[in-house]
Write a structure and sequence with these properties.
The chain has a domain at 11-116. The protein is mostly helical and 173 residues long. It has helices at residues 18-35, 40-60, 64-71, 81-87, 91-94, 97-107, 122-128, 137-140, 158-172.
Length: 173
């Protein structure tokens, strides 16, 4: 069903953004090859077929505005198909002539580049993104914070350490 060349038989033709779905499938197969060595040969074959499908899809699109909007449409994690292709180093996709034209169009600011200059800075992103953790570990481990040690068991070697330190103290006097 995936590699069917007819419009009705291919499952990607029924999705809103086939290019993004194919890039996500390519990424999933890439992660499978890293996780399971036994599946690497089969996954690499599927990755090659998906890569050729991506290139065929890009070559079939005639409108550059449509291709730009499809390539820059983001998934639920906030990544677009161009970013996924760059992360996975899919050079065949990045070096396709139509993709080069889209990249050049974005670079020359012909396309919408709304946002602040500071948003490109990593420290700015770290400071301004919402915290996903409810527990602040650092507050719990401050040196001035009183700790309750009543319920904690002692180490077996504590007696030996205490005995040796008392012995060295007596020797020192």
């Amino acid at each position: 069903k995936i590699f069917d060349h007819s419009l009705e038989g291919n499952i990607f033709s029924h999705s809103a953004n086939p290019l993004l779905n194919m890039c996500l499938l390519y990424e999933f197969l890439f992660l499978l090859t890293k996780k399971f060595f036994s599946l690497s040969y089969t996954c690499r074959q599927l990755m090659d077929q998906v890569k050729t499908m991506i290139i065929e899809y890009i070559e079939s699109v005639d409108d550059e505005n449509f291709l730009t909007s499809v390539m820059l449409e983001k998934d639920y994690s906030g990544r677009d198909s161009l970013q996924i292709a760059v992360e996975l180093e899919v050079l065949d996709l990045i070096q396709a002539p139509k993709v080069k034209a889209v990249i050049k169009r974005i670079w020359n600011s012909d396309y919408d580049t709304s946002g602040s200059f500071f948003e490109m800075s990593t420290p700015f992103q770290i400071l301004n993104q919402p915290s996903t953790s409810d527990i602040d570990i650092e507050v719990e481990n401050r040196f001035y914070k009183k700790r309750n040690i009543e319920g904690k068991p002692q180490y077996d070697s504590n007696f030996n350490i205490f005995k040796q330190s008392m012995y060295s103290r007596l020797k020192g006097k």
